[in-house]
């Protein structure tokens, strides 16, 4: 199965954390944590954040979330504070018996010498996030928000902190780092780790990056890596290295949105995953989609309403007549889609706060997929959408 990481963003809501030099700890760790999630998702890691907006989450809620999620690793992100002359970077583990993750993350952080003025090392601490989590956990204090020089690092080096923390987590999970401009797979390929192509029940994971699939396969004797056509691209002793099944007809999905400030003026149609629809900046307000065969149905929940509008069906797409979900210039924070043809399902995801959220897969029911919708549903607008129709 895919590896899982829980990323805890310290403080938030009515607890801003440490404040100094015009900065709030809760804001800094939110910005860094969202980018950590982005980089982990690029590497096929399942990610859960303790919060994705400025809201209050108790310590008990955070570790309960991580434990229920079944994470393989937990990283808690913080800013330090003390007297104005204190500075530097440090990372904590519960006891040195459980320091492996902390060593990995701290090691990647101190590799980049532009991220700190003093290396304060890895230390033990009886912190709740370290003590009450069931998985290996590390708590990172990136820099002292109370120190003027360190505060400049927190203000200007957020992406670099995020990359280093993500690299440390990936190193702990045994996943090789791939630079962003190298990570997009061609033709949206998916590599599956199975005993044989026909033995779907044995599957250990599915990866868009072949190197990550091979790394997983090496952990399981008698398994192979197969591409989407059933061709064996790596073998660790599995049987029946290539048994492709008959290919189902490809059904294309076309979608487009209109964003806030554009009224009913839509962006161009997007086909499948050749691109996303939206601009990643402005909130989506209107949405349309239609398939080359069958019926796609969808609905959105405008933030101002707090409920779903009626479902839309595209009966007349062949005539160039389309229905739409939403209202002009009224952002929505949730979208649901479903597809009616047996043997197929619709796969979609939303971008919020500059990060892609988890994929949702629904057939003829809205509740088949994860949470049954794409989006955060907490008032955070969706700024882009990707969708396609795939076989079951």
Shape: globular
By CATH, the topology of the largest domain is Aminopeptidase
Largest sheet: 6 strands, mixed
| Percent of sequence in beta strands | 25-35%
Highest CATH level, the class of the largest domain: Alpha Beta
Question: What do you see in this structure?
Answer:
This protein has 392 residues and is α+β, with helices and mostly antiparallel strands. It folds into three domains: 4-173, 3-Layer(aba) Sandwich (Aminopeptidase); 185-236, no CATH class; 253-391, no CATH class. It contains seven helices and 24 strands. It has helices at 25-42, 59-69, 100-111, 128-131, 148-156, 158-173, 210-217; strands spanning 4-9, 19-20, 23-24, 46-49, 73-80, 89-93, 119-124, 136-144, 191-194, 205-207, 223-226, 232-236, 253-259, 270-271, 277-278, 284-291, 296-302, 312-313, 325-326, 332-339, 344-352, 355-356, 360-362, 384-391. A six-stranded mixed beta sheet has the order 4-1-5-8-6-7, sandwiched between helices. Strands 15, 21, 22, 23 and 24 form a five-stranded antiparallel beta sheet that branches. A four-stranded antiparallel beta sheet has the order 10-9-11-12, covered by helices on one side. β2 and β3 form a beta hairpin.
